C-alpha cells in the first residue's frame, strides 16, 4: 500500500468527499453485533482511517479498540472528531502488509484494504498479519468490491470478489458464517456494490 498516495488523498479531500464515506456504518455494525462480543474484547479496524465505525463502537461500550491505517492524516481526522474520547483508542500508523501484531484481537474488521491488494505476495502478507493478530475463535468481518463494482477506486486498481472467492482467500483457517451484499452509494451518488463476509477462525 502506498503511504504517500493515501496521504495525498487525505490532504486533498474532506472526510465526506471520499467515495467510501458512510455517515453510519450499518453493515459493519450489524455483522459485528452478530459476533456476540463482550465490551472488553479487543477489536481492530484495519484501514479504518477516518471511518465513523470507531465512534459507534465507543458509544456501544467497547473499551479495547484499535484503528490502523497507512495514512496518519486519516487517523488524525478521526482523533480530532472524537475529541477527548480519542484517548480511549489505540491508533496505529502502519502498512498492513508489514504489520506485526503484538497480541490477538477478538475481531478483525476490514472494509477498506483487502481489495486493493492485487498481487499474490501482498495478499499473502496480509494473511500473515491476520493470522498473527487472531486466535482460534476470533472473528473476521471483511468487505471488498463485488464482481460488478468499478474496477478502480481512488485511482488504484482493485480486485473484486464474490462471497465464494473471498472465503477461499482465508480458507481453511477461517470458515465463513455469513455473507451479505451491500449497495453503497458514494457521496457523488455512484453505486458501489460490496461483498461482505463474517468468518470465524477455526484453528489456532
Notes on the structure:
The protein has 204 residues and is of the alpha/beta class. The protein has one domain: 3-Layer(aba) Sandwich (Rossmann fold). It has helices at residues 3-12, 26-34, 53-59, 72-82, 120-132, 163-170, and strands at 43-46, 65-69, 89-93, 107-110, 139-145, 152-153, 156-157, 174-185, 191-201. Strands 3-2-1-4-5-9-8 form a 7-stranded mixed beta sheet, with helices on both faces. A two-stranded antiparallel sheet has the order 6-7. A hairpin with a 2-residue loop joins strand 6 and strand 7. The longest helix has 13 residues, at 120-132. The chain is globular, with a radius of gyration of 16 Å. The model has no long low-confidence stretch (mean pLDDT 92).
Which strand order do you get reading across the main beta sheet? 3-2-1-4-5-9-8
State the end-to-end CA separation: 28 Å
Arithmetic mean of pLDDT: 92
CATH level-3 fold name: Rossmann fold
Proportion of helical residues: 25-40%
Q: State which percent range the strand residues make up.
A: 25-35%
CATH H level, superfamily name:
Vaccinia Virus protein VP39
The tally of domains stands at 1
Uncertain runs are none
Structural class: alpha/beta
* Radius of gyration using CA atoms only: 16 Å
**Count of discrete alpha- or pi-helical segments spanning 4 or more residues:** 6
Named at the architecture level, the CATH assignment is 3-Layer(aba) Sandwich
Topology as H/E string?
HHEHEHEEHEEEHEE
Largest β sheet strand count, sense and barrel closure: 7 strands, mixed
Number of strands: 9
Q: Specify the overall morphology.
A: globular
- The level 1 CATH classification is Alpha Beta
Amino acid at each position: 500500500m502506498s503511504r504517500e498516495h493515501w496521504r495525498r488523498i487525505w490532504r486533498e479531500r474532506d472526510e465526506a468527499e471520499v467515495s467510501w464515506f458512510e455517515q453510519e456504518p450499518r453493515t459493519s455494525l450489524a455483522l459485528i453485533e452478530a459476533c456476540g462480543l463482550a465490551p472488553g474484547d479487543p477489536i481492530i479496524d484495519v484501514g479504518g482511517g477516518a471511518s465513523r465505525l470507531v465512534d459507534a463502537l465507543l458509544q456501544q461500550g467497547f473499551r479495547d479498540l484499535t484503528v490502523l491505517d497507512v495514512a496518519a492524516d486519516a487517523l488524525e481526522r478521526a482523533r480530532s472528531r472524537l475529541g477527548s474520547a480519542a484517548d480511549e483508542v489505540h491508533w496505529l500508523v502502519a502498512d498492513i502488509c508489514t504489520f506485526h501484531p503484538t497480541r490477538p484481537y477478538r475481531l478483525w474488521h476490514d472494509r477498506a484494504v483487502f481489495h486493493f491488494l492485487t498481487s499474490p505476495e501482498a495478499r499473502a502478507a496480509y494473511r500473515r498479519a491476520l493470522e498473527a493478530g487472531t486466535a482460534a475463535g476470533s472473528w473476521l468481518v471483511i468487505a471488498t468490491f463485488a464482481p460488478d463494482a468499478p474496477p478502480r477506486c481512488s485511482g488504484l486498481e482493485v480486485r473484486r470478489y464474490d462471497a465464494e472467492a473471498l472465503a477461499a482467500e482465508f480458507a481453511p483457517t477461517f470458515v465463513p458464517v455469513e455473507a451479505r451484499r451491500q449497495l453503497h452509494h458514494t457521496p457523488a451518488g455512484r453505486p458501489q456494490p460490496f461483498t461482505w463476509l463474517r468468518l470465524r477462525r477455526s484453528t489456532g
